Amino acid sequence: MEQESLNGTFDDRVMTEEQMEALRKQIAIYAVLCDQLVFLHNSLSSVPLLSSGMNSMGGGYFDPMVASSSAHGMSTRHRWTPTSMQLQILENIYKEGSGTPNPRRIKEITMELSEHGEITEKSVYNWFQNRRARSKRKQPQTTTITSGQADDAAVTTTDERESCGGDSGAFESYEHILFPSPDLGIEHLLNRDKFID
Amino acid sequence: MEQESLNGTFDDRVMTEEQMEALRKQIAIYAVLCDQLVFLHNSLSSVPLLSSGMNSMGGGYFDPMVASSSAHGMSTRHRWTPTSMQLQILENIYKEGSGTPNPRRIKEITMELSEHGEITEKSVYNWFQNRRARSKRKQPQTTTITSGQADDAAVTTTDERESCGGDSGAFESYEHILFPSPDLGIEHLLNRDKFID
DNA sequence: CGTGTATGAATGAACG
DNA sequence: CGTTCATTCATACACG
Fold first, then answer.
1. Residue of higher predicted confidence among B84 and A71
2. Which of A131, A192, B129, B136 is 20 to 30 A from A170 in CA distance terms?
3. CB pairs under 8 A, 24+ apart, for B77-84?
4. What's the CATH class of domain B81-140?
5. In a mutagenesis test of the B interface, which of A163, A187, A190 is the best target, namely the one with the most B β-carbons within 10 Å?
6. What percent of chain B has pLDDT over 70?
7. Domain segments of chain B as ranges
């Protein structure tokens, strides 16, 4: 019956700076690790880094449809699902002040993304629309209006917005990665599989 | 970037869940990336490029939860669970012709509900959304209902699990990431570059 | 302890 | 462009 009392009474679930620092450190380490791995490989082997048997290992583990993007077998998929790479690219573009999805740009992006999976211009368009709409769903401070530049002026140009402290958080907010993103260069590595075999 | 706690909120320098999620995402990507790199290497080279930090792909993932290493029993990790009280209130409001979840109303409701347990506007919003969707799905079941829960519309009940294995499911799983040990024994890995030759 | 079900949450797509 | 709908996913919870 009373299963409600187990909930914490705190209003906002947050992370302390220390914890955040830890995460950052981890990421940094990973970044270095990846870098080292590539370097390492190149150092001791002239073989082009590629994949090949990768997916044949017991239970494909990652990046599947990227390779077989054109696979229209299970086309029953109505809803397009971006691959992580596509997502990364999109996010990247989004962050690059390209808050202005030029009609022309869309095509470019679509082209780019099509390399990593099936995609349509419409989807790209939708994505940007959604992205923008959802980030804007930020909760304005309670006190007074502060309707200064609620528009698409210079939204978070200096440094991502952070500290939504307060409580309740926002509605549909999702953005701000506050540190160098990897860019997912893995694709380049995987790409090599075209040369082998 | 030094913004004092002029906000007057409870916490000063903390991270919201969303931000944390972002970090996790990044880490997850890196983790996968590293994994792939190692595997790739091993695939085409017999050189012992071990893999340590991360798990070896094959199904299992990493260790559960790491962020709260300090044993801060914060139960409200994800998925908010409405207390019976909250539920009652919500249902009540829902029935009151509130088929129109007023945006402004949400805040009020959230306020109200926060008195009975932790709640966020987002959750309230979600609740209404889900509620509506759910009812709609049950409606078309009219005619020959007969309380039959067996026939049902077979609306993708529990089978649409779909090809998570061979699909992009793996990558998309970073939702609730959990990375390798926080300590990162990558030194071993990095060290190798000195041993190998 | 493993399996099935209910439901909160995320998000692509559509509507006005 | 902002809001809403529909679909999917993952987790909490119940059953055996």
1. B84
2. B136
3. B77/A13, B78/B176, B80/B118, B80/B119, B80/B120, B80/B123, B81/A3, B81/A7, B82/B117, B82/B119, B82/B123, B82/B127, B83/A3, B83/A4, B83/A7, B83/B116, B83/B117, B84/A1, B84/A2, B84/A3, B84/A4
4. mainly alpha
5. A163
6. 36
7. 15-65+178-197, 81-140
